[in-house]
Each structure stands twice: as structure tokens, then as C-alpha cells.
């Protein structure tokens, strides 16, 4: 008889265990679905970014630069062709004429930055990107925060 009295007590314990296991599995499934949708499904911000594709700005060629680099010994030089992307989508001849008048100032700023660099600064893509960013910040600081959008090196040779 002692065995039959213990048997009913085990059943409620098994039922409680089953309920807990089912609840944990259901919670895990809900979390897994949430994580899946968060990481796999396209978000609305990514969709908006692809829909709002930026049109290229007007390109303004600054010209060729040949300068000594800041390497020890002063025997290294850089030759680069620089083009600026303006923060305008349509060509405005009046604004381009203003920029042409200011070209000596623009070239001076770029030349000062380029001549302060070493070959190590220019060897990697990351290094060249830093130099481009430095040029962009300096020119936007000089001519207005939204004047230039990007800097391009169409030719770059260092020796």
C-alpha cells in the first residue's frame, strides 16, 4: 500500500515538470523567432537607405600635385591628381567660376596636407581614406561646412 500512495504523488510532479519544460521551450522558440527576424529580415531603415540612393555631385578637378613627402631624408615624393565632389547635384557655372577663383587657396590647403604625410600614411586604403577625410574637413572648414562632399584621387604615385 505504501507503494500506491507514493505513485499518485509522482504523477503531479511529472506534470509540473512537463509544464515547465513546455514553457521553457515555448519561450526559447519565441526568442529564436525574434532573433531571426531581427538579424535576417530586412529592416525598414535598410530599405529606406536603398531607396534613397544619393545621386553623385558635380565633380571639380583640382589638378595634379607633385610634392615631397614628410619622410626622413626628404627623398620621397608624391604625385597625385585630385578631384573634389561638390555638394551639388546640378552644375552651376556661377559657383564653378567662384571655385576657379579660389583654386589657389584650395590647392594650397591640399598641398599642405599632402606634403605633411609619409609613404606609410599613403600605403593602405585606410591611410588614403584618412588623408581624403582630412582634406575634406580642411576645405569645408575654409569654404563652408557643406561645400564639398568627397575627395577623389584619380592618380596617385609615391616613390
Question: How would you explain this protein's 3D organization?
Answer:
It is a single-pass membrane protein. Belongs to the FliL family. Keywords: Cell membrane, Cell projection, Chemotaxis, Cilium, Flagellar rotation, Flagellum, Membrane, Transmembrane, Transmembrane helix. Controls the rotational direction of flagella during chemotaxis. This is Flagellar protein FliL. The chain has about 160 residues and is an alpha+beta fold. The chain has two domains: about 50 residues; about 100 residues, 2-Layer Sandwich (Tetrahydropterin Synthase, Chain A), CATH 3.30.479. About 55% of the residues lie in helices and about 20% in strands. It has six helices and three strands, in the order ααββααααβ. It has a three-stranded antiparallel sheet, covered by helices on one side. A hairpin with an 8-residue loop joins strand 1 and strand 2. Helix 4 runs antiparallel to helix 6. The longest helix is centred in the first third of the chain and has 38 residues. The chain is elongated. The N and C termini lie far apart (about 100 Å).
Rg value = 32 Å
Order of helices and strands: HHEEHHHHE
Mean residue pLDDT: 84
Largest sheet: 3 strands, antiparallel
Identify the CATH class of the largest domain: Alpha Beta
Q: How many strands in all?
A: 3
Strand order of the largest sheet: 1-2-3
Q: Can you count the helices? A: 6
The CATH architecture category of the largest domain equals 2-Layer Sandwich
Tell me the distance between the termini: 98 Å
Coarse morphology: elongated
Low-confidence stretches: none
- Annotated CATH topology of the largest domain: Tetrahydropterin Synthase, Chain A
In terms of structural class, how would the helical and strand content be classed? alpha+beta
Content of β-strand: 15-25%
Total tally of structural domains: 2
The level of helicity is 55-70%
Amino acid at each position: 500500500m505504501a507503494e500506491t500512495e507514493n505513485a499518485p504523488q509522482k504523477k503531479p510532479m511529472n506534470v509540473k515538470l512537463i509544464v515547465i519544460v513546455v514553457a521553457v521551450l515555448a519561450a526559447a522558440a519565441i526568442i529564436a523567432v525574434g532573433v531571426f527576424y531581427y538579424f535576417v529580415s530586412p529592416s525598414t531603415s535598410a530599405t529606406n537607405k536603398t531607396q534613397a540612393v544619393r545621386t553623385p555631385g558635380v565633380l571639380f578637378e583640382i589638378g595634379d600635385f607633385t610634392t615631397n613627402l614628410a619622410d626622413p631624408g626628404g627623398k620621397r615624393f608624391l604625385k597625385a591628381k585630385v578631384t573634389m565632389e561638390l555638394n551639388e547635384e546640378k552644375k552651376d557655372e556661377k559657383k564653378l567660376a567662384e571655385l576657379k577663383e579660389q583654386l589657389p587657396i584650395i590647392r594650397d590647403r591640399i598641398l599642405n596636407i599632402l606634403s605633411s604625410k609619409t609613404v606609410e600614411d599613403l600605403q593602405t586604403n585606410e591611410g588614403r581614406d584618412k588623408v581624403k577625410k582630412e582634406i575634406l574637413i580642411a576645405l569645408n572648414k575654409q569654404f563652408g561646412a557643406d561645400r564639398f562632399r568627397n575627395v577623389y584621387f584619380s592618380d596617385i604615385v609615391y616613390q
